[in-house]
Amino acid sequence: MSSQDSEEGIRPSDGYPLLQTRNLTKHYPGVTALDDVDFELRAGEVHVLFGENGAGKSTLISMLAGANQPNGGAIEFKGKETPLHSVHEARDLGISAVFQEFSLIPQLTVLENLFLGAEPTRGGLLDKKAALQHGQDILDRLEFHLPLDRRVDRLTRAEQQMVEIAKAFRSDLSVLILDEPTASLTDHETEQLFKLIGRLKADGVGIVYITHRMAEIRQIGDRITVLRDGRYVDTVDAATTSEDALVSLMTGRVVGQIFPDIQFEPGAEVLRAEDIVTADDAVRGASLSVRRGEIVGLAGLVGSGKSSFVQACFGARPISGGRVWLKEREVTGQPTADLLRDGFLYLPANRHTDGLMLMRSVRENMSLAALNTRPFSRGWMLDRRAESRAVDELAERLSLSPRRVERAVEHFSGGNQQKVMLARSLTRDFDLIAFDEPTVGVDVGTRAAIYEFIAQLCRNGVGILLISSDLPEILHLSNRAFVFYRGHIQTELTGADITEENVLAHFFEREAA
Question: What predicted TM-score, i.e. pTM, was given to this entire model?
């Protein structure tokens, strides 16, 4: 790494090396996840790890955090070779990680999760008073407004993300590792996190940061290390390296326009929902329609009701009021299995808890929504040979990497897991597909492929519902957009009126005239 520091464009740093890897290597059966990777983190810097899904970023940080051990190479902490045999060992040194996938116990409270495995004691007994005080101090420092006595399974995903972040601050930090920490946070919460990162930098904490959001790299990054196919590519300056140059380093090719051009040709109405009210009050009187050959975007802050509305239409959330029609036939309150059979597919935002069977194979996950149709079955019997052929074709079409359809989904990167879930939309003919946060945690190259995937479905006459917290997706992919706020639809925008200014103007409660 030292040779890279002298290259033009890399600014020298006053920070000393906190954490280094030398020739770090990690093998899994049939796969080299990391191949002789050198990496250096300095005190007081934000060092961004950048690369496509499957490039080795998660493997690298798992070893830096002590959650995984290398097959070769070495890790040095403060200039001394330091094998990290466990997460507890790393935390004792001041190295804490916030992984993209949560490690919370849903049935325990916020406080219990904060100190799980590191509970403060007094005289051999749990010191509840000290835990409460320390826990509240952590939340106050982070400016996270969470009740310590609330069970985690009663929190929103954004609030659960806050608990994960807060866990890293229960001891003194030297190194903080953040893996897509803003994926579930609102703009305000993200701003608070970035302020905290600024304070940590000033205190000399080194921060390893994984993100696919270019704006975040520009805002908080100092240096960027690019990985590709498990190998080190380059380390560059975050302030002076262009987005095109980063994408070229990441993919090894020039990536053109991220968003595809779509000529919308709306046809017959495929979905109509009127005055929908959910039993949990997450949606309160929302109405919209979707036609074939169009993309209808649903925007709004986390918790605004946009996902709950579609889940209610899909029969996955109880409705206490309103009516739903699918292809002019009323389907209000019908079970999801019936709606799926009738051509309505919903792909959820959380692929791990709602969308995938992680311990099952790619083949089983891809074919899940079409097991009662040809070529997957003949009558009452599953046709395994035909199923395997169909899944192999889908894996090739979606560039699944590695292309091993009998491998458990949990062993694939986040972007490839997303491809597995998306493949379900190609296993049978659907009239309406709802994509809920389809690009969370995926790289730029995969993101572009997903956008083209959605666009092609639209061109083929499928009605698309696109639920997204990523505003550019709504702006560039939708021909109509609805903005949700506290369970209500604030506005409907069409065509040229779908602008950032118009969408953001309805993210919050409107003042009475």
Answer: 0.63
